[in-house]
Request: fold
Amino acid sequence: MSEADAARDGAAGSGAPALEVDRVSFAYAGRKALDDVSFTVRRGRFTALLGPNGAGKTTLFSLITRLFDAREGAIRIAGRDLAKTGASALAPLGVVFQQPTLDLDLTVRQNLRYFARLRGLSVKDADRRIEAQLERLAMAERIGEKVRALNGGHRRRVEIARALLHDPEVVVLDEATVGLDVPTRRTIVDHVHDLTRTRNLAVLWTTHLIDEILPGDDLVVLHRGRIVATGTAEGVVAETGAPDLDGAFARLTRAPDGEAAAR
Ligand code: ATP
Reply:
């Protein structure tokens, strides 16, 4: 193996940084929404970005997906600076937005094919990947149905399949379980955790729901635009001295115990 190959393999290895947020600040009309935010999302890791309403999660998500540009600081995807590299820096990124973005009058296959073509995949390759992704999400038999006929949980699964079609290194999901019932939420959260292990994927999962986070997950707690804790979820709990993540979150976001913000 050449040195260059070894370096590339090493960079793609488990634990390698896939998404770096480096001293990012952002303001809406002079009002700071993010203040000097830094953290890293690594390959093979599920990183939860947890914060109460108004913490700045969606603002950060918008900067990572380039809906806005970072005014201060840098965001790097697979080592490439978004501001310096342009649109191609987004190639290793998969995205699931908070609001559903499927065309309701197209079938599952048509929605996914359209996206695959935008990503430059051939029809044959696209179809192979679409079938494989849907199979993993137990959605294969729904491929010919119009999205309008699917329930919220199944629509979300299609969006997750879509985010994975181009084989990204990192997937970011913004409150992906909003509006879903508890068993459906559990299925989706479990599936995304599995992806980190089976595909060595880096995942950034924004949420205000503590029960979606496992003790060994990486955790970034955002409050009023600032990071108030980072580490594994169990490490953050231990550091705060709280009995559990609910208590830790309440302390970190300065709400009284038992009244964690935005549960
Ligand atoms: P939620 O969970 O409620 O979606 P969030 O953590 O995603 O909250 P943001 O939506 O990023 O938080 O908001 C962070 C701060 O920026 C809040 O004070 C919010 O009022 C403000 N804000 C968000 N979007 C805008 C906007 N378009 N114009 C002005 N202020 C905004």
Strands lie at 17-28, 31-42, 46-50, 72-77, 80-81, 93-96, 170-174, 202-207, 218-223, 226-232. Residues 103-167 form one domain. The CA atoms of residues 109 and 131 lie 9 Å apart. Residues 182-198 form the longest helix (17 residues).
